[in-house]
Fold Lipoprotein.
Amino acid sequence: MKNIKIGCLFLVLTMFLVSCAGKKPVVVQNTTTIEKVITETIHDTVLTVQKDSSSYNALLECINGKVAIKSVTQAEPGRNLKSPKVRIADNVLTVDCEAKAQELFLRWKSTYITEHKQEIKEVPIITNVLTWRQETQIKGFWFLVSILTLIIIAFIKTTFKKTI
């Protein structure tokens, strides 16, 4: 008789332990997207250099049948031009005017980096949704377990009353 009582008790405890399963947590989706946009722009421009001039005025005279410079009345340099160099040789007038070197290089590249951070907030994803049939089976199971428990308790009480 003791073995039957222990067996019934073991059966009831086993049923309770097997039937109590923890609920699965709801899966939550949290997504963060970072998008980098790199924009490169090439710039160029045209620089306008203002006109420049230099001037030279001189008085000429004839010496022994050849032309010669008597006196310089005005020699004016420009912003970039030096004063002209004037020479007369064999009745040929030579004027040299030199300018300073100018380097104009205006081309550059600009890079813009923009970041777009997009967060998708926590959206609950419902998984394993029970149908009405499954819910009815679960409720019916607990109803049968409670009836079986009452029967076992009544059986144990009647068994103890007979032995006492």
About this structure: DSSP finds two helices and six strands in the chain. The first strand starts at residue 27 and ends at 44.
